[in-house]
Design a protein that fits this description.
Length: 233
């Protein structure tokens, strides 16, 4: 993922950042800064959910997005949230003998096993795929969406406050998963311990500027302190 001279503004035209050029490789990056400085806007640009006011973005791979808040659509089921409803319907047609030649070629014979494994890994063993997503708690919905990311296996995972609604065991599982993940990760989180455990790069958004530190969060805090002291001299 590469951002070249990117600018972003609020709906009323207030600049969030300008002339921003960044590259994201296979690393785990924390984006930090006060509320309102454009952290989520930056993540939405990276995820392809928003367009920059200026500049360009180039993506070489797939992106998975976990939003801070989630509102299931009316009638949305667990299978829908996992992104598996269509492939499951296709597989059912094939197994019932009603599938076309194209269906036979596209059928994912490992899907049901991978669904079971993904749900088990996030602590949702045996969750009915036709259950309404809205009937799940906030924490269960977050874990369900994480299972969907695992199934999609994107090259880059973008997470906006992923530990919201998660208990300690779920957070520990997420840390372990992201630590083993071979792609890139970009995360916003107020959970300092979580950020420090999983990231090796910190991007600070502040007052319309971006500071890029090749450092874990705790080390970044020391480097930021030194930067501010140097400016005051």
């Amino acid at each position: 993922m590469t951002l070249n001279s990117v600018a972003a503004r609020t709906p009323d035209g207030h600049p969030l950042f300008d002339n921003l050029s960044l590259a994201f490789g296979r690393e785990r990056t924390a984006v930090v800064g006060r509320n309102g400085v454009g952290k989520t806007t930056l993540l939405r640009l990276v995820a392809g959910l928003a367009e920059p006011a200026e500049g360009t973005l180039a993506r070489a791979g797939t992106v998975g997005w976990l939003a801070q808040t989630y509102e299931p659509a009316p009638g949305e089921t667990v299978a829908d949230t996992l992104g598996a409803a269509g492939p499951l319907a296709l597989l059912a047609r094939v197994l019932a003998g009603d599938g076309s030649v194209e269906d036979m070629a596209e059928a994912d014979w490992t899907l049901e096993t991978r669904l079971d494994e993904a749900l088990a890994q996030v602590g949702l063993v045996g969750l009915a795929l036709d259950r309404p997503t809205s009937s799940l708690s906030g924490g269960e919905q977050t874990r369900l969406r994480l299972a969907g990311l695992m199934l999609a296996a994107p090259d880059l995972i973008v997470l906006d406050e992923p530990t919201n609604h998660l208990d300690i065991l779920s957070i520990q599982w997420l840390e372990n998963y992201l630590s083993r993940f071979e792609g890139a990760v970009i995360v916003i989180s107020h959970d300092r311990a979580f950020v420090d455990n999983i990231t090796n790069r910190t991007i600070e958004a502040t007052m319309g500027r971006i500071y890029d530190y090749k450092a874990k969060y705790t080390h970044y805090l020391q480097l930021r302190k030194e930067r501010r002291e140097w400016k005051q001299q």
